[in-house]
Amino acid sequence: MDFTPFIVCSPGDRAPRPRPMSTPDGLGDRMRTAAFAELQAIVAFRWAVDQFPDAPPALRDKWTAQVADETRHYEMICRRMGELGFELTGQPVSTALWESLKVCTTDRDFCIRIASAEERGRLAGVRLVDYLGKSDPETTAIFQEIADDEVAHVALAATFFDWVPE
Fold this sequence. Notes:
The protein is an all-alpha fold.
């Protein structure tokens, strides 16, 4: 899978730890990780629609709709990173999310794994919103919007498979 323009770690390798949040590079690292997670989700939802033709049509329709949401999230983060002077290539990123999803063999397994990842991303976004507070209202608004959208994304696993995050 080509994730250009990102610099990706070799499969199985971890990305460098993000730098401290108190530094501009720390915010850039978190935004880069979030943008890359959104890109992996775009790829994953497209893949799942093709991979699981026997999934309930309503679920496949939701996955298709999520591609648009994930694309919007990705574009918002990338635009803001550019405004702040952060490069997508600033640090290597991990493909662990995509690697964990492409081995799913059932629509249920995929739906639950992606919902779990979306919930982790939502929580990270909430933490970022709390940290930024009023110091960066534009970035705060972006991550608040994404966190709000993720609630519905996570809920798909509950709707179709009675799964809820811990």
